[in-house]
């Protein structure tokens, strides 16, 4: 490939990354953490009864108790089974959700405000959903662009595949690490970018396909992707969800039921659908359908449908790594950290080439490490505050920006230290609020990684502070030595004269 093409690719890679650096970082950081969104839901309410399975009678009792308490109009009813990624029984409608114990008694209202804010940050950047998702999806396309232009711009991609130079001022090592992360994990980054782009642009794609091939009939396109609702004789009465659930042991004994939905509640077209996770398949789930009386109708046909339908139904698990339990989630977390660090190191490389302008550099570090601090304090606020967590998070981000402008000493190591101490404060607050429940699996699976982050961030901050002090002392010594030599030179000249 000629030098002009490589240079153009490098210019595109640089300026796209610089101008969208903050948005890309926030989407990548929140997405990396949101890989564990189910674990965060458990973490928010660690004292809830957990179980491995549940009987049809318990499911029926829990829903009956829920319906007697909540009579408001709702188009759907849901039951989340403990065989899903959350080992808890949840019954809900379109407005509210409750946990139930292993006897079918309602325990307390589901409250996962922090998790919802975190997922909303990743999917919509906390903007209105209609155009927030389009923006985030466009960023997915940008990630694909950065991966491709980065590979094209690489001058010696084969020779430098495993090169990592150390020494000097660290800039060369940072460039090498940036290039290695970008190259080694490029297949993952492309998968994340493509699937992320799909989620937001699916509506636009649907309109285009409907216009070109179906005379503008969007429903016809939807029916090709999502199996249409079954055509039934008019239904009435309370849905027999217990009877429907009991049949899953016979219909799909090898599958794990994830959740149950009652569609069009109270309407003549009401029906029950149970989504079950198919082993060794990437699709989200297969749908098993029943009429109101609990009689089996058939499957939705996602598991053995056309390849295009199976691909679209695999997008969720491909994007969030939810296909091989905690193994795939931790793999996605590590790869997500690499993608996030690409955003960080790319901007730091650009800043270093601009001689690290003080205010711009401090603002970047306030964004990177200050966002971790803002998330930690938002989680703390959720324990004592019932207002908008979106407002809390963005007010904290604005506060970080204002303080950084005002206080010149808030450099990279200081913000790194602040982020670690903020997470430590979150852990202390968590123990104070949840007490003995802090030591349940639901808590420890996230609290232990958070404690590891605290230790690493404090250690890393101290290392950077010591390094900066050593460099400052060396510079001061060099200046003093130069001044002394100049003074001796002047004295010698005077004596000679």
Automatic annotation (TrEMBL):
Membrane-spanning intervals of the chain: 12-36, 131-153, 188-212, 330-351, 363-381, 387-407, 414-433, 439-459
GO molecular function, one term: kinase activity
UniProt-recorded name of the protein: Aspartate kinase
Keywords: Kinase, Membrane, Transferase, Transmembrane, Transmembrane helix
Biased composition (Polar residues): 482-497
Pfam families linked: PepSY_TM (PF03929)
Species assigned in the record: Alteromonas mediterranea 615
Keyword set includes DNA damage: no
Top-rank taxon: Bacteria
Region feature (Disordered): 471-497
